[in-house]
Structures are given as C-alpha cells and as structure tokens.
Amino acid sequence: MNEFFLKIFLFFSVLCLTENTYSEISPYKNYRVSSKDTIYSIAKKMHTTESEILQLNGKKILKILKVGEILKIPYKDKKIVKFHSPLSKKAKIEKKFSEVSFSPFKGILFSQGKDSTVVSAKEGKVLTCDYMDGYENYVIISHSKGYYSLYGNLREIYVIEGQKVLEREKIGMVSASKGLYFQINNDGKPVDPEIFLN
After folding, report:
1. pTM to 2 decimal places
2. Taking the mean position of all CA atoms in its chain, how far away is CA 9?
C-alpha cells in the first residue's frame, strides 16, 4: 500500500463513526463482575475494548451488569504498547472514547488549555499534516507495530510530513478555543487511548 492510499485509509478511519464488526475473538479468560464494574471500567482494567467484550459475550447493547456474573475477556499475551501524554502540561479529559453505537467517539478530548504545547506521544514518522473541518489543523504520526496517533485542534504545527520525531518531541500548539483531540489507531481500528497512556 503506497503512502497516498495509506493517507486516504487513515483519513476515513478517523471519520468513521459506525459501529465496528469484530471477528470471533479467542482465546479468552473469565472475569467475575464486582459491584462497581462497568463494561468500560472492565475494558480499561483488562486492556481490551468494550466492543470486544460485548462481542465475545454475545451482548449487543450496554446493560447493567450483575454482581458475580462471569464475563469472557479476550486474552492477549502481548504487552500493551505504552504512549506518553500528548500534552506537555497535565490536563483533564473532557470527553472519553466511546464505542456505543448511538454516540460513538473515536478518541479523547482534553479540556481547553491556554498555550498548551502538543508533543508526540511516541517516537515515529509524521505521515500527515493538514486541515479538516471538525479537527482544524491536525497531525498523524505512524508508529511501530501498526499504531498511528492523531492530534487535532492545533493552532500551530511544528513538524512536516516525512519527518521522524522522538517521543515527547514538540509537534504543535493547541488551538486557543478548543482542547486537544487525541486518537490512537491500531491496524486501522480506533482504540481507547486511555488504555495506552502512561
């Protein structure tokens, strides 16, 4: 796949707001539901996604879990790839990743921060620097093992396409009117960034 088609593929992956269809997941391990558990909290704790848990357990909608209920959790023997915060200063997450079909959100939105510097969450190569309605100026960086990170709502961009960047290297500044939009894709599929952030 050449670079042009890879950019087009990533562009539509970012825009895609439809519910993903997942193939059968195996192997799995059992998880006993406790009183404060939700599908989201279990997914984060077990380093997987809400969709994978729901698909493996035959659940098509989020429902109230029963204490003591046994859920099948996708078993992944590989270590989770870690990303650093994409902001140089600590900021709260205003909107979280969601795969709920009626209100999907494919990344996380940090609260508005004045003059916040945006840094690369992991070393990689700058794939795209562009502007798009809804994301304003944005940067996409490709990383190893099929990972990509997207940084949206930028006022300024400090990098160029094709440039190699180090982890925590400055890549831009957040827009004064919006918080940073941050998304991680793995193998073309958006994943919950909070699972991967240190």
Report:
1. 0.65
2. 16
- The per-residue pLDDT of the chain, averaged, comes to 82
Fold adopted by 3-15+81-196: Glucose Permease (Domain IIA) (2.70.70)
Long-range contacts of 53-58 (CB under 8 A, 24+ apart): 55/22, 55/25, 56/25, 56/28
pLDDT of residue 182: 96
DSSP state of 86: S
Residue 182, φ and ψ in degrees, nearest 5: -130, 130
β 93-95/124-132 pair status:
unpaired
| Residue 172, number of CB atoms within 10 A of its CB | 24
Q: Does domain 28-74 bear CATH number 3.10.350.10?
A: yes
Q: Where are the domains of the chain?
A: 3-15+81-196, 28-74
Q: Return the ∠ at Cα 185 (arms to 159 and 22), rounded to 5°.
A: 165
Mean pLDDT value across residues 162-189: 92
Rounded to 5 degrees, what are φ and ψ at 113?
-135, 125
Confidence grade of residue 21 (pLDDT, cut at 50, 70, 90): very low
